[in-house]
């Protein structure tokens, strides 16, 4: 694994205080990136805990006794559990707002206002506060009130799902979090932009993004084409693609791979396939004939690729400097040496013998170390610690616990 400078004084966000009221992936993911660079993040959950704690047991997610997704999205955080519906919770929210530099929320707006987590309420306690809000469909408009999930707001609504299946095939089902995670990076960018503005002006601000906005940005080439009135090619068809050199093929040992051969690489590709005759074949002699016979040419290339194992084609394509990518599943991805060589996968401390590695956030600053990744908190693990820092006396903390505003730490947390 690549070495890193481990001087904690170099952490960019050391001293930055973050309160994470958000749930699931996008909001918590933004907080994780801040924590990777030294921020002190307090995760706030309801008394029974966030649903993502048990996502590892909810089909169709990969089943495990280990709450792997909880650790991924909440590592390095301190955890408190508060019943925000209790009137006395407002005292804690007020002190958290005064303590924090960044306040992350993804609660739907009507519920947010009832819980007094809306911007107007919390910003009155701290004019330097960066209030970070992520929604499904944006703050305004006819669907602003709808609950947002990456499957609905990021994938379906933005057109991405319509772009990611072959002609004649039904839309696929994206894997959990694949829209939330990039949306979280967008929220992180909004937070950092606001922090930079605060450095210049001294003023806090409210920043936002949405799964819809992030999804449209991800589908930007297609959406911009639509805005420009461009003519779209038919849905991709592997057996009759728009371009035979930009397609998916399979080797004789059943390994699928994507081929990305630019026009200047076509002679080398033909040579590597042992089919230089195709360059002079009258059926493919000009663009019009090529388009009319694309399925014929594709069948020839498909048959050729299926005649040899992937190791052969890797050698051929590498020698010709033709880009390609093996289509890997997650069990293969974790074996990729590039991940540890580039600190994409890093050690995780304290999560148990069966979970020793985790995924680092996708941002590196050369010469600056990230904080070593530590397990996510148990439910209510840091209630007393955090409340004491906020100025609550021991008897006040006991009163809050007795009235049900805060929970007792779990057995695991007590032992930690």
Provide an overview of this structure:
The chain has 416 residues and is of the alpha/beta class. The chain has two domains: 8-218 and 333-415, Rossmann fold (3-Layer(aba) Sandwich), CATH 3.40.50; 246-250 and 256-326, formyl-coa transferase, domain 3 (2-Layer Sandwich). It contains 19 helices and twelve strands. The chain has helices at residues 26-36, 68-74, 89-99, 109-114, 119-123, 150-156, 160-163, 180-201, 211-218, 220-227, 266-273, 287-292, 294-305, 310-319, 330-333, 337-341, 383-389, 394-402, 411-415; strands spanning 17-20, 40-45, 77-81, 102-105, 130-135, 205-210, 246-250, 256-260, 324-326, 345-349, 357-359, 373-374. The strands form three sheets. It has a six-stranded parallel β-sheet, sandwiched between helices. Helix 6 packs parallel to helix 9 (211-218). The protein is elongated and about 90 Å long. Residues 1-8 have low confidence and may be disordered.
Features of the shown structure:
416 residues; alpha/beta; Rossmann fold; formyl-coa transferase, domain 3; 6-stranded parallel β-sheet; 3-stranded antiparallel β-sheet; 19 helices; elongated; disordered N terminus
How many DSSP H or I helices?
19
Instruction: State the CATH architecture of the largest domain.
Output: 3-Layer(aba) Sandwich
- Proportion of residues in β-strands: 5-15%
N-C termini distance = 28 Å
| Gyration radius, rounded | 26 Å
- Helix content estimate: 25-40%
The name CATH uses for the topology of the largest domain is Rossmann fold
Oligomer: single chain
Q: What is the name of the CATH superfamily of the largest domain?
A: Crotonobetainyl-coa:carnitine coa-transferase, domain 1
Number of domains: 2
Uncertain segments are 1-8
Briefly, what CATH class of the largest domain? Answer: Alpha Beta
- Overall average residue pLDDT: 94
SS elements, strand count: 12
Structural class: alpha/beta
**Mind describing the biggest β-sheet?**
6 strands, parallel
Shape descriptor reads elongated
Biggest β-sheet: strands ordered side by side in the sheet: 3-2-1-4-5-6
